[in-house]
Design brief:
The chain is mainly β. The chain has one domain (2-108). It contains one helix and seven strands. It has a three-stranded parallel sheet. Strands 3-6 form a two-stranded antiparallel sheet. A two-stranded antiparallel ribbon has the order 4-5. The longest helix is centred in the N-terminal third of the chain and has 5 residues, at 21-25.
Length: 109
């Protein structure tokens, strides 16, 4: 089983997104490095180059474009996992966190 850790935009972020020795030993893996959008892509497959940015170790959506930055997914795919994240959304926003969504589900969304 793979365990994952994500600290996106939304948390009282530490300086950088890091794992303790205990977390590493337990098999936790970071999804977000706290520096850039490496390891992420747009749901449609393109590299994340607009709409999303990293500021002060936090993943942020710029709110631009018809999809307010676009849906993003991890490049790496996971089978069995535990997910821990901190997430924040602004007032009057309409978004969420989806998991176990792949390209085969794309036409259903």
């Amino acid at each position: 089983m793979v365990t994952l850790l994500l600290f996106p935009a939304f948390c009282n972020a530490q300086k950088t997104n890091t794992l303790s020795k205990k977390e590493k030993k337990a098999g936790w893996e970071l999804l977000f490095n706290g520096k850039n959008m490496e390891g992420w892509k747009f749901f449609q497959g393109e590299e994340v180059n607009k709409g999303w940015h990293v500021t002060d170790g936090i993943m942020n959506n710029s709110g631009t474009g018809s999809d307010h930055g676009g849906d993003i997914i991890t490049i790496k795919q996971f089978k069995d996992f535990e997910l821990y994240l901190e997430w924040k959304i602004g007032p009057e926003s309409n978004s969420g966190v989806f998991y176990r969504v792949g390209r085969r589900h794309q036409k259903d969304l």
